[in-house]
Amino acid sequence: xxxxxxxxxxxxxxxxxxxxxxxxxxxxxxxxxxxxxxxxxxxxxxxxxxxxxxxxxxxxxxxxxxxxxxxxxxxxxxxxxxxxxxxxxxx
Length: 91
Known about the structure:
Elements lengths: L26 H6 L34 H15 L10
């Protein structure tokens, strides 16, 4: 919806994404993202359906099933890699 409450359709080509990592195919490469000190922001287009609890998710899963567990595992990897350095957190 626009500012007037009218339905609109708009397509945007995102040129800033130049590399894709599939955590199901290369979980090590996914976790390696956490080691990159240049990454400052994490974005997600996950809908409510994707933010769900899976009781079977475990920190040792490669990868976990749910999106929240995947993100939590990535955050843990970063925390451990940078030894909890406050200036290495993500926004």
